[in-house]
């Protein structure tokens, strides 16, 4: 679902949440109504008790007797029937409000998680570079779950406290206007104390959410890097770092607990004043004949029902403040503006020829020097070009710009004569098959990873792609063949095996443009030769961009470009570049063992 239009005006987190859940307004009103009605019937028993006392004390002169029922048994029978009805309705509305609030909590947390994750996927890579995975996971899981807990319990508790105050307060002023103020006197103090506690707790719970985010980030990073931790024997070091983060989280919680735990004892003292005042003053009113015994019983019970539930405000406020801190973090994520917007021109993949023209583009990562400077490059449709150069020269960055993972700062990139900014992002990226040197495999089977991006692919098509990528033979040697689980990030496979599965995945996609970013960097010489043979077939009638350090893999390209410091410094065929005896020729001699160089950095 799409969330409501964003505004730059800062709002209270509860307002932001209500605005987000606008579509659930009918469900919210149903839940609110059931909560109020449940509390209304929950408050009825003290009235029935007062009426029963009135019957046994006044007998034929009781309030019910004035309705025409003089018999005491008949009066008590009426009260019994009313009790059954009231208790039944209270139970019905309790079941209903619990079901409604819980369903509402589940629906909103589901929508929030899906919307937040969907929005994350649309954000540029720079956003993820500035934030840890653990921090984002904390928002998507912990913060949304915290909000769910509040909607499950806290929202109903707040409504029922308000309902209690309104109903009992009205009853007091109707029954005994002269003594009602005694029971109501503590309520302003309690409300003032609640607001004060909110103000004190809000920044503390914001700190708690920040600390748990850092803790989750540490855990996520360590679990991902467990091999590195073991190989460097830094287990004790990481345990100490985790202990420090966990201690910071514990201490931030303790600072909040110091205040929240003090709330109930303080409220009890205030409540005691109102309860004892009614107990004493009301009793004297009965003694003087100014107040009926049944009414006095109702007042005593009602005072207890009015004031004691207010002690639960501490826990409710605790839930509320945690939920509001979490709401702010989730809504801030949803309000993060997109910097890369999709174009409006739809180009079916089948219509793309693959001509790429890069005209005078420049780009720099945030806070860093320009990495690509006024670069221009033409890639004819259906041809294979290669880009070589030293580490940090901007080769891989150029690939990210072609995919619009980052936005160029100046210049223009066109695909078949259309600026890529104007093409729908999904169409642009669907037209490009990327095989990166940093292969990522998802936890699942070999078959699922090869078919990633084309879930409807047949097993025959998957096997055909694997054979072209020289992956079929090793896959068949795995315990369950194509059904073998590769593990998280493909950790059960070797680097070369992961690389070949990634190539098979790109082959199955069958894009008009293929980008090989160090695609053979993790394979042995024999496999590299086999892949090189298959690439000759793959690149037929397909625009191919090959980025490589191993020059032997790109020597047959139609054109080879040499990049240094974000600019093209040499270009030509393999033979032409050797004849120039420049940077490329020097690299070729080094790799062929014709001369030796000392390479720094």
From TrEMBL:
Ranges of residues in domain ABC transporter: 356-590
Major location (coarse): membrane
InterPro entries linked to this entry: AAA+_ATPase, ABC1_TM_dom, ABC1_TM_sf, ABC_transporter-like_ATP-bd, ABC_transporter-like_CS, P-loop_NTPase, Type_1_exporter
This protein's GO CC annotations: plasma membrane
UniProt keyword list: ATP-binding, Membrane, Nucleotide-binding, Transmembrane, Transmembrane helix, Transport
Membrane-related topology note: Multi-pass membrane protein
Keyword DNA-binding carried by entry: no
Keyword Calcium listed: no
GO molecular function: ABC-type oligopeptide transporter activity; ATP binding; ATP hydrolysis activity
Transmembrane segments: 72-93, 158-175, 181-201, 256-281
UniProt-annotated location(s): Cell membrane
Ranges where the ABC transmembrane type-1 domain occurs: 29-322
PANTHER family with a match to the protein in the record: ATP-BINDING CASSETTE SUB-FAMILY B MEMBER 10, MITOCHONDRIAL, ATP-DEPENDENT PERMEASE MDL1, MITOCHONDRIAL
Protein name: ABC transporter related
Source organism: Rippkaea orientalis (strain PCC 8801 / RF-1) (Cyanothece sp. (strain PCC 8801))
């Amino acid at each position: 679902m799409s969330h409501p239009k964003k505004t730059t005006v800062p709002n209270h987190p509860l307002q932001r949440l209500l605005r987000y859940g606008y579509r659930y307004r009918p469900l919210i009103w149903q839940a609110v109504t059931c909560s109020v009605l449940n509390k209304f019937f929950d408050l009825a028993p003290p009235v029935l008790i007062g009426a029963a006392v009135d019957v046994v004390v006044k007998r034929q002169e009781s309030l019910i007797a004035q309705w025409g029922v003089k018999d005491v048994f008949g009066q008590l029978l009426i009260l019994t029937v009313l009790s059954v009805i009231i208790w039944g309705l209270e139970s019905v509305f309790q079941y209903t409000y619990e079901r409604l609030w819980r369903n509402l909590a589940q629906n909103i947390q589901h929508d929030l998680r899906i919307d937040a994750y969907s929005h994350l996927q649309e954000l540029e890579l720079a956003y993820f570079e500035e934030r840890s995975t653990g921090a984002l996971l904390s928002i998507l899981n912990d913060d949304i779950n915290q909000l769910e807990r509040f909607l499950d319990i806290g929202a109903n508790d707040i409504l029922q406290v308000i309902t209690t105050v309104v109903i009992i307060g009205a009853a007091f002023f109707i029954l005994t206007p002269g003594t009602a103020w005694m029971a109501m006197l503590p309520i302003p103090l309690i409300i003032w104390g609640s607001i004060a506690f909110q103000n004190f707790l809000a920044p503390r719970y914001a700190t708690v959410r920040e600390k748990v985010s850092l803790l989750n980030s540490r855990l996520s990073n360590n679990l991902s890097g467990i091999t590195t931790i073991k190989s460097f024997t830094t287990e004790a070091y990481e345990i100490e770092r985790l202990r420090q983060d966990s201690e910071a989280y514990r201490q931030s919680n303790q600072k909040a607990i110091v205040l929240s735990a003090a709330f109930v004892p303080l409220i009890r003292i205030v409540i005691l004043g109102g309860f004892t005042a009614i107990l004493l003053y009301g009793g004297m009113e009965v003694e003087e004949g100014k107040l009926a015994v049944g009414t006095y019983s109702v007042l005593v019970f009602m005072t207890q029902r009015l004031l004691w539930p207010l002690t639960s405000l501490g826990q409710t406020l605790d839930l509320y403040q945690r939920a509001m801190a979490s709401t702010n973090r989730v809504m801030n994520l949803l309000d993060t503006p997109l910097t890369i917007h999709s174009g409006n021109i739809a180009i079916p993949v089948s219509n793309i020829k693959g001509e790429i023209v890069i005209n005078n583009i420049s780009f720099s990562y945030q806070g860093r020097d320009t990495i690509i400077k006024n670069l221009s490059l033409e890639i004819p449709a259906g041809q294979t070009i290669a880009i070589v150069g030293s580490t940090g020269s901007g080769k891989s960055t150029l690939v990210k710009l072609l995919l619009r993972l980052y936005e160029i700062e100046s210049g223009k990139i066109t695909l078949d004569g259309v600026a890529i900014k104007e093409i729908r992002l999904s169409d642009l990226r669907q037209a490009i098959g990327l095989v990166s040197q940093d292969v990522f495999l998802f936890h699942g089977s070999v078959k699922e990873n090869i078919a990633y991006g084309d879930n409807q692919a047949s097993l025959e098509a998957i096997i055909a792609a694997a054979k072209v990528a020289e992956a079929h033979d090793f896959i068949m040697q795995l315990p369950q063949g194509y059904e073998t689980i590769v593990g998280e990030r493909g950790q059960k496979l070797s680097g070369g095996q992961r690389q070949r599965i990634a190539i098979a995945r790109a082959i199955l996609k069958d894009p008009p443009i293929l980008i090989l970013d160090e695609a053979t960097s993790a394979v042995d010489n024999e496999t590299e030769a086999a892949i090189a043979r298959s690439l000759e077939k793959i690149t037929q009638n397909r625009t191919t961009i090959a980025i490589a350090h191993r020059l032997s893999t790109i020597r047959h390209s139609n054109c080879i470009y040499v990049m240094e410091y974000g600019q093209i410094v040499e270009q030509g065929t393999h033979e032409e570049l050797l004849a120039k005896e420049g940077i490329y020729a020097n690299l070729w001699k080094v790799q062929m063992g014709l001369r030796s160089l000392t390479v720094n950095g």
